[in-house]
Task: inverse folding
């Protein structure tokens, strides 16, 4: 009996280990809205039927409508890291075809949007801002709310700022975000509006917006130091001696921030 | 024994309470008016408007805290424009932002517009009182506070209780500082009426007991008894509730009351009885590592020392009690030295030190040796500074000055010394009769500390503060001296640009534009990053315009515009630039600027006309721009074949003005010029339409009443003199249809245009009326026109007729000048020596009569005339002497005199050259170049100077000339036109060629 028990335990451990290995190998998981999960061998998307085809490890293929899906975990594409390295290294031209293929192949399977984000950056590097803007808009259409980070949104606005014919839609988007976005997005949006004012020579309006973030968004530490820095910059341009006080506050409050370490122009 | 002063402002805990109270105080005011401190309120609001109002008010409050009250006001103004219902809530912030910038009148006006008894209004009134206090306007502050407390004589409603107590406390401190102890005591009663919390109540009672003692000790016995009884009651209440610093305070108060009542033994007993508790308090301070300056022991020991000293001194005087007396004094010394060494930071230490020295000196005078302990002087000196400051704060200036001198002689150049020197100078200023001392200290501060990097900023600030005191006294001369010292010595101080700007402003207000320009140029050149940079450019442009240097004005304005963001100010500055170009005869550039003005105010109104005030202001500017744009078109003369097109453009512009702004003040003139242009273009029907409209829409205007004159005047302004003369001849041919006043106008206009013959005809006709004033003016005009046409002989009869008929005429002075010149000319043409002499003498006699009538500042004009006559007489040396006297003795600080001095310079130089007085020539040149840096004859002066230098002469006492930038500024500079040919005004459209620059 004891040997039998030991054998069962050993097999269970091996099984457990195999299961663990399988789990490590099979990172394709579908999480449904009803709380259940499906460990999948593969997950495919059917555009026409607007459903996923999920093949589990028993080789059963199940069609799952999009409406039932909460989220996915999908294996990272083999070329993703290489493409990311290319974009980060400034080799946008080489990265584009890889990323475009990835967007296609991984449609509606998580990595399409991550590829889109990199693709947007690649086109930005190539100064094809229109294309970059279009790609980012596709990303927003296809992304889940949590996937649209403030940094991504900001990048999108910065892209639109470089497309003359998109200025009015940029302003609209910024205003909408200020009114109804989350606090961190709203803070970013106010800063963007300030940049727009500054580009048009409206220094006072730009300053008011920087001060708005400085006064009302101290709880958004990702944005707050930037607002203090840029307020000081504009104050310098306006020859307002309060620029020095603003810099002092920045250094005192965020001594380790890159904004505090920037040189005065 | 004077305890009185020792009980003022010696409560450290009270100071701490005040400092921490301030932020609580302001927060409570904001809380009352519904302003929350950040982060943003969590509760959902009823609608979007409320959300926006809340957010903006929160933002504005934050801006004030951050040191941006000006932007807070802008935010509130925009909020009120969008949401008028937010006015009450916005008002509190506006009060803060206005008073932060010293705009008290506006703050008071704002409060008057609020409902009188609302909580918001009361809170604003207190905020205003606080602000007055912060700005040292104590009378105004008192008024604000008292009107608040009088509303609640029996205590405030609950919702105001906290604010009420805190305000009363603030009020009490204010009165105490002014020495109004009775008032402060009453204010403390208000504090208690607000029913503060237990801890605060305890502190208040302790302080109130102090004031009861203070007031009581100077009161008559019956009143004192009641006050002391109240103090005792308060002390007992405090003692019952705990052993802390306030407990310690009550011990001192109770002991002190005994002393005042003449019971020193009782006082000592009080302290001895409470000694264990006092020791307990001190141990607590030590354990908590709190400074011993708060310990009640210092004060108690002082009291004990004083009692022992009094007794000891009496005993020592009595030989039978000498030993006992020495012991007593030793006891006193022990107390004093203990305070000095152990409680050196306490406010009692300096006094204890002094008292100890007093005892030592007393004993030594009795030949009794005293062994003194080793003392740490640094701590003592620190304490001495504090004491001096304390005396200063009490406005005891003579004692404070003495104390400061004592301390500064020991520590002359420590960082603390700067503040002490400022206070010392202030003491001398406030004392009156000590001005030389004040001046000495101020100069020492400037000379000694400007180069000391450690304290230079502080020293500069101290200097400015001293200047501020003189300004408050109206002593502008000292203010100027100090400012000059400041800007010369503290070149790197952040406030130098502000002071230079103020200097320029002083001169500007006095209309001394050339001198003002010196300061503005300095600011522009040396401080391009200063906040006042753009304002200096604007002012410099105004100065240049006033001095007639229009090209310089254009340069300044161009730079000024580069500094401005889109807004109403930019529109106004653009118009100014257009005006400067027009005055400088750069009509193409002027047109471009006028077009820009119109574009800003119409097509880009969202950027340039944001408020109703902007809209109204810009409207006026657009009218001017449209009018003067057309005027500039009328002035364009090349290429000649395009003149008709220019005229059409002008007509178009006038039409637009009249169409868009039919009620404009410029509309009548526009219509009259338009009429003239249409006549020139052979469109009489349209021309008459314009004139008919002028008469119909503006029947009372000058232009409507004299269409013919207007036509002639317009032609003259367009530079068409011959045609203008023809038109005026029409008037002469039909003289009966016109009035003498109309002929006067013609005469004046033609004389101004140097068409003297026509002017003469007009004046002759004007003299035919019956009005004596018109006759006198016409006669004078006639004489002046004859003189200007160099027909002096013809000028004599009408001038002498004027003198005969109207010897007291206002025109007499000018008549004298004309006659003096006329007779001099007549003498010059006379061959007979006797008659020649007679005519010259007559000329000089008229000049002397003129001199007697002249304003002293205008007498240099007579000197010039004398010199001119002397030249005609052939008396060159006398003429040179007259010119040189003017050069040497004229007061150049008077703007009115400077043109005459320049005239004398340019007249005397050729005479000196002819006489080969080359040294005088070059000396005059050097003086001119130094004194008239924007002078009319600067170029000529430099040329003469160069010529003299080539002959080997050097100017005596040469002062370094302004660097080349000044030279560029002085000479008519190249117009800062665009790199390519002047662009067509934006409104021209594709088919029209651009006007070519003349």
Result:
């Amino acid at each position: 009996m004891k040997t039998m028990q030991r054998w069962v335990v050993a097999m269970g451990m091996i099984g457990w280990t195999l299961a663990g290995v399988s789990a490590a190998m099979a990172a394709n998981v579908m999480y449904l809205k009803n709380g259940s999960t499906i460990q999948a061998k593969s997950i495919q998307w059917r555009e026409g039927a607007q459903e996923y085809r999920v093949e589990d490890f028993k080789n059963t293929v199940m069609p799952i409508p999009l409406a039932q899906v909460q989220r996915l975990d999908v294996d990272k594409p083999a070329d993703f890291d290489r493409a990311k390295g290319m974009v980060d290294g400034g080799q946008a031209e080489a990265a584009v075809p890889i990323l475009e293929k990835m967007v296609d192949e991984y449609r509606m399977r998580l990595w399409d949007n991550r590829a889109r984000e990199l693709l947007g950056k690649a086109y930005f590097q190539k100064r094809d801002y229109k294309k970059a803007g279009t790609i980012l808009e596709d990303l927003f259409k296809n992304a889940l709310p949590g996937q649209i980070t403030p940094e991504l949104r900001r990048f999108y606005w910065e892209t639109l700022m470089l497309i003359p014919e998109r200025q009015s839609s940029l302003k609209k988007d910024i205003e909408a975000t200020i009114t109804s976005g989350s606090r961190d997005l709203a803070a970013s949006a106010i800063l963007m509006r300030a940049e727009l004012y500054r580009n048009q020579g409206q220094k006072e309006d730009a300053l008011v917006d920087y001060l708005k973030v400085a006064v009302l968004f101290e709880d958004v530490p990702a944005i707050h130091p930037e607002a203090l820095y840029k307020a000081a910059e504009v104050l310098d341009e306006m020859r307002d001696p309060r620029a020095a006080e603003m810099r002092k506050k920045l250094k005192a409050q965020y001594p380790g921030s890159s904004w505090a370490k920037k040189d005065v122009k | 024994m004077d305890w009185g002063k020792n009980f003022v402002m010696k409560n450290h805990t009270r100071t701490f309470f005040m400092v921490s109270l301030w932020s609580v105080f302001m927060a409570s005011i904001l809380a009352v008016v519904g302003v929350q401190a950040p982060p943003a309120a969590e509760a959902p609001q009823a609608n979007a408007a409320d959300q926006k109002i809340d957010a903006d008010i929160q933002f504005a409050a934050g801006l004030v805290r951050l040191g941006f009250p000006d932007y807070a006001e802008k935010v509130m103004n925009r909020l009120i424009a969008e949401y008028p219902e937010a006015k009450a809530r916005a008002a509190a912030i506006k009060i803060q932002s206005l008073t932060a910038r010293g705009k008290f009148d506006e703050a008071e006006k704002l409060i008057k517009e609020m409902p009188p008894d609302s909580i918001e209004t009361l809170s604003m009134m207190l905020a205003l009182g606080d602000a007055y206090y912060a700005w040292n306007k104590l009378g105004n502050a008192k008024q604000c506070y008292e009107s608040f407390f009088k509303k609640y004589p029996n205590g405030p409603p609950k919702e105001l209780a906290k604010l009420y107590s805190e305000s009363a406390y603030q009020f009490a401190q204010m009165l105490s500082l002014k020495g109004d102890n009775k008032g402060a005591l009453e204010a403390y009663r208000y504090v208690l009426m607000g029913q503060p919390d237990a801890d605060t109540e305890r502190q208040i009672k302790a302080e109130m007991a102090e004031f009861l003692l203070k007031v009581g000790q100077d009161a008559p016995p019956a009143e004192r008894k009641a006050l002391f009884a109240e103090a005792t009651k308060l002390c007992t209440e405090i003692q019952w509730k705990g052993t802390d610093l306030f407990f310690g305070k009550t011990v001192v108060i109770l002991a002190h009351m005994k002393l005042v009542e003449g019971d020193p033994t009782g006082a000592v007993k009080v302290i001895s009885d409470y000694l264990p508790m006092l020791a307990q308090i001190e141990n607590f301070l030590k354990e908590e590592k709190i400074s011993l300056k708060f310990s009640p022991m210092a004060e108690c020991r002082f009291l004990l020392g004083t009692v022992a000293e009094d007794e000891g001194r009496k005993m020592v005087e009595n030989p039978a009690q000498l030993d006992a007396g020495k012991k007593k004094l030793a006891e006193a010394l022990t107390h004093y030295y203990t305070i000095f060494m152990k409680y050196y930071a306490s406010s009692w230490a300096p006094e204890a030190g002094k008292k100890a020295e007093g005892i030592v000196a007393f004993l030594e005078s009795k030949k009794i040796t005293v062994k003194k302990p080793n003392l740490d002087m640094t701590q003592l000196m620190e304490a001495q500074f504090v004491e001096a400051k304390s005396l200063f704060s009490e406005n005891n200036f003579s004692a404070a000055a003495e104390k400061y001198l004592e301390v500064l002689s020991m520590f002359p150049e420590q960082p603390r010394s700067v503040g002490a020197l400022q206070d010392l100078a202030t003491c001398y200023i406030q004392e009156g009769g000590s001005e030389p001392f004040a001046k000495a200290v101020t100069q020492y501060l400037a000379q000694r500390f400007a180069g000391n990097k450690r304290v230079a900023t502080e020293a500069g600030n101290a200097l400015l503060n001293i200047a501020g005191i003189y300004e408050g006294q109206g002593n502008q001369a000292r203010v100027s001296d100090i400012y000059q010292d400041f800007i010369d010595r503290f070149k790197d101080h952040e406030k130098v640009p502000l002071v230079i700007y103020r200097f320029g402003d002083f001169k500007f207000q006095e209309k001394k534009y050339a001198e003002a320009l010196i300061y503005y140029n300095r600011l522009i050149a040396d401080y391009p990053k200063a906040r006042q940079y753009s304002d200096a450019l604007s002012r410099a442009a105004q100065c240049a315009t006033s001095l007639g240097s229009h090209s310089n004005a254009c340069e300044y304005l161009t730079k000024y515009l580069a500094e401005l963001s889109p807004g109403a100010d930019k529109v106004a500055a653009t118009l100014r630039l257009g005006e400067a170009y027009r005055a400088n005869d750069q009509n193409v550039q002027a047109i471009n600027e006028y077009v820009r003005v119109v574009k800003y105010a119409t097509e880009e109104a969202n950027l340039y006309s944001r408020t109703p005030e902007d809209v109204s202001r810009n409207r006026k500017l657009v009218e001017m721009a449209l009018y003067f744009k057309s005027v500039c078109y009328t002035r364009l003369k090349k290429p000649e074949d395009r003149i008709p097109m220019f005229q059409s453009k002008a007509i178009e512009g006038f039409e637009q003005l009249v169409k868009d702004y039919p009620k404009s003040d410029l509309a009548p003139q526009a219509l009259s010029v338009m009429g003239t242009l249409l006549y020139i273009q052979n469109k009489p029907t349209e021309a008459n339409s314009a004139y008919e409209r002028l008469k119909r829409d503006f029947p009372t205007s000058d232009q409507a009443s004299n269409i013919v004159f207007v036509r002639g005047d317009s032609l003259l302004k367009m530079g068409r003199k011959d045609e203008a003369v023809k038109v005026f001849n029409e008037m002469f041919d039909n003289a009966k249809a016109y009035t003498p006043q109309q002929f006067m106008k013609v005469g004046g206009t033609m004389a101004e245009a140097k068409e003297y013959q026509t002017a003469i005809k007009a004046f002759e006709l004007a003299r035919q009326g019956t009005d004596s004033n018109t006759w006198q003016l016409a006669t004078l005009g006639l004489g002046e026109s004859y003189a200007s046409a160099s027909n002096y002989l013809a000028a004599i009869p009408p001038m002498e007729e004027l003198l005969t008929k109207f010897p007291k005429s206002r025109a007499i002075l000018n008549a004298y000048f004309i006659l003096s010149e006329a007779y001099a000319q007549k003498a010059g043409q006379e061959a007979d020596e006797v008659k020649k002499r007679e005519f010259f003498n007559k000329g000089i006699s008229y000049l002397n009569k003129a001199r007697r009538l002249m304003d002293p500042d205008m007498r240099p004009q007579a000197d010039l005339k004398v010199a001119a006559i002397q030249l005609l007489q052939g008396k060159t040396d006398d003429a040179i002497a007259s010119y040189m006297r003017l050069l040497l003795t004229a007061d150049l600080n008077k703007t009115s005199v400077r043109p005459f001095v320049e005239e004398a310079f340019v007249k005397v130089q050729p005479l000196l050259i002819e006489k080969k007085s080359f040294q005088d020539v070059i000396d005059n040149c050097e003086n001119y170049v130094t004194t008239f840096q924007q002078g009319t004859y600067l170029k000529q002066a430099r040329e003469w100077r160069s010529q003299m230098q080539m002959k080997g002469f050097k100017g005596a006492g040469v002062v370094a000339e302004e660097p080349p930038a000044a030279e560029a500024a002085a000479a008519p500079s190249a117009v800062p036109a665009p790199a390519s040919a002047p662009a067509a005004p934006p409104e021209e459209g594709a088919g029209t060629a651009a006007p070519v620059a003349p």
Notes: Residues 5 and 11 of chain A are 10 Å apart (CA to CA).
